[in-house]
Specification:
The chain is an alpha/beta fold and about 150 residues long. The protein folds into 2 domains: about 1-35 and about 125-150; about 40-120, Immunoglobulin-like. Helix content is about 40%, strand content about 25%. It contains 2 helices and 8 strands, in the order αββββββββα. It has helices spanning about 1-35, 130-150; strands at about 40-45, 50, 55-60, 65-70, 75-80, 95, 100-105, 115-120. Strands 2-1-4-6 form a 4-stranded mixed beta sheet, with no helix packed on it. Strands 3-8-7-5 form a 4-stranded mixed beta sheet, with no helix packed on it. The chain binds copper (II) ion.
Length: about 150
Amino acid sequence: MANTSGGISRVMMRVVVSMSIMVILASSVAITLAPSARAATINVSMDGNEFFPGDITIDVGDTVTWTNNDLVLHSATDDGGLWDTGSVSPGNSASITFTEGATYSYHCEFHAFMTGTITVGTPIPELSSPFALFGILLLTVSLIAVLRSRRK
Ligand SMILES: [Cu+2]
């Protein structure tokens, strides 16, 4: 009887341990995919010879879309020449995705006084995923149980 119950609990432990590993693997995949899944699009209007909002803070991987709500051509052109939407005609829009943490000052190539800034920050990874914590907890408990049962 002791052997049988020992065998069953060992099988149960293996199931619990492999389930925990699967939960941890699944949540690490979710954490890895999270930044791109959460990537946002931030809208900036070109209106009245102004960028609105003029100063924005975004996360790495986010996309900024400039929409020309004016009656004249505008552009969003990085002061350092790193990126440029090119000419955006009235009613049209142009997008740029930012993949590096940096602060950019930009202007309109047609109106030098038309300026804005983009601060690109690194998003904080969501390591506090409840699935990952649950998996780690489950794995720890089952490892302790396995170690205890081996001592008997
Ligand atoms: Cu302009």
